[in-house]
């Protein structure tokens, strides 16, 4: 493409025939003819790498007004918001996305909702994809991902590939980082959704209000006026979210016990499934949801709401709920001991999620609830004692272990949890912690291994060593049976 093809996105001359061979925000990835976007980041300022980008052959540099870049030998284009400009430029450069796209935000449930919405669409006969924490899933494609919301260049490259492969529908997760950093600003969205809000990422957002505001960008900055906003109705943060979506001129569709669009009339939880009565447009549907975890019915309602808001008939969307498969590592039953005690792997790595998952299994546990968990290094330190308290209150046996200590001293992370977890057992080595917990299980007990879910590695220092909770649980169950 030529620079002039970015008119409307960037302040460029209509006559500029400078060739643009790609867009980049990391100077180390700049190839000849790429447009380099200098972004102010959390660790570095991209403007300091503009000269490096120019040396590597960048055709032009896009930078914030007042960045003071000159003498680079390439044109400098000034904009108010380089991250927003990057997102729009990446969308224009790759030039294609699945026709119908939706995004879901909220503290918990995004990965599950994206996966469920894909499955409902699939059931309704559409070629559908989901994009998020567990990676990309589409017909013939299942790839592990790294970020919940990919950066705009990776995202639009992917969306174009999906569209070219015939994918017409895609559901993606909108993390608060992704929204704040404008990663989704170039995506054309047909609908958005909100699940809930709890404590998360307090290392990035100064206050919970700031965190909520970042999430609201989906509704007040990204969705076009009149677009449907599917909002879970039973969360303390539902009302302010509904108010913001209405103020932004969206068509608000609430789901849940207090929902107008999909109303949960009754639900009976069983250990591995739940039976629900849901009202849609005056009709009552009886649904048998084949998933453990009280919260999954809420995620299922949000997903059905998204599918319906984008044209899937209610009867079809709700019937699809009976076939749902949980996202990997979300209250995932890995196995049971010979005496029938189940072991679940779950991705609860924040307070509300831990509280929900432990409360969910209690009614079906005649013996003890055991939990193995830790907290990630280089992440919100404030959640450590909170999670220690929750585990101690809701489980009978608490084993505190490591979960991606990253650059921090693992003993110190554990100590911060242990300080609020009297009686907890501390076993730093996660493998050993899992094996010991499995060895302790008696008939009637339930074990939850929380925090890593689908992850395939343990990051210690700068190194990520292969590690899977699923594999360790299976190995421990085999060892116990032997
Ligand atoms: C804190 C954070 O969100 N960081 C993300 C952010 O990086 P940044 O802009 O702060 O980068 P920086 O290191 O300060 O550098 C500034 C700029 O200089 C550039 N640079 C840097 C060095 C160089 O030699 N040349 C160069 O051009 C960088 O490419 C960048 O554009 O933008 C990058 C590109 O999009 C992301 O890769 C990076 O994610 C890091 C790896 C990360 O760990 N992010 C996590 C916290 C995250 O985003 N998580 C959310 C939520 C997870 C969830 O709850 O599910 C997610 O969506 O995954
Ligand atoms: N609707 C919900 N309400 C409360 N807790 C939930 C809900 N859905 C999922 N959880 C809990 O949160 C964990 C993560 O779920 P999921 O991966 O679907 O959410 P997410 O928003 O994508 O999280 P992350 O931001 O960590 O990727 C689950 O393993 C479960 O413990
Ligand atoms: N997207 C989240 C995942 C955390 C998962 C947990 N296992 C940890 O490492 O803290 C983050 O990067 O903060
Ligand atoms: Mg997720």
Task: Explain the layout of strands and helices.
Blueprint: E1 22-24, E2 34-37, H1 50-55, E3 60-64, E4 76-79, H2 82-94, E5 100-105, H3 110-123, E6 128-132, E7 135-138, E8 141-143, H4 152-164, E9 169-173, H5 176-180, E10 191-194, H6 208-222, E11 228-232, H7 238-247, E12 251-256, E13 262-269, E14 274-280, E15 283-289, H8 295-309, H9 314-320, E16 332-336, E17 342-346, H10 351-361, E18 369-373, H11 383-394, E19 397-400, H12 410-418, E20 425-426, H13 430-440, E21 446-450, E22 457-460, E23 463-466, H14 469-481
Parallel strand pairs: 1-2, 2-3, 3-4, 5-9, 5-10, 6-9, 10-11, 11-12, 12-13, 17-21, 18-19, 18-21, 19-20
Antiparallel strand pairs: 6-7, 7-8, 13-14, 14-15, 16-17, 22-23
Helix pairs in contact: 2-4, 3-8, 3-9, 10-11, 11-12, 13-14
The structure holds ligand UAG, adenosine-5'-triphosphate (ATP), 2,6-diaminopimelic acid (API) and magnesium ion (MG).
Structure description:
The protein is α/β, with parallel strands linked by helices and 482 residues long. The chain has 3 domains: 3-92, Udp-n-acetylmuramoylalanyl-d-glutamate--2,6- Diaminopimelate Ligase, Chain: A, domain 1; 95-322, Mur-like, catalytic domain (UDP-N-acetylmuramoyl-L-alanine:D-glutamate ligase), CATH 3.40.1190.10; 332-481, Alpha-Beta Complex (Protein-Tyrosine Phosphatase, Chain A). 32% of the residues lie in helices and 23% in strands. It contains 14 helices and 23 strands. The strands form 4 sheets. The chain has an 11-stranded mixed sheet, sandwiched between helices. The longest helix has 15 residues, at 208-222. The mean pLDDT is 96. The structure holds ligand UAG, adenosine-5'-triphosphate, 2,6-diaminopimelic acid and magnesium ion (MG). It is found in: Cytoplasm. It catalyses: UDP-N-acetyl-alpha-D-muramoyl-L-alanyl-D-glutamate + meso-2,6-diaminopimelate + ATP = UDP-N-acetyl-alpha-D-muramoyl-L-alanyl-gamma-D-glutamyl-meso-2,6-diaminopimelate + ADP + phosphate + H(+). This is UDP-N-acetylmuramoyl-L-alanyl-D-glutamate--2,6-diaminopimelate ligase. UDP-N-acetyl-alpha-D-muramoyl-L-alanyl-D-glutamate binds at residues 27, 148-149, 175, 181, 183. A motif (Meso-diaminopimelate recognition motif) lies at residues 403-406.
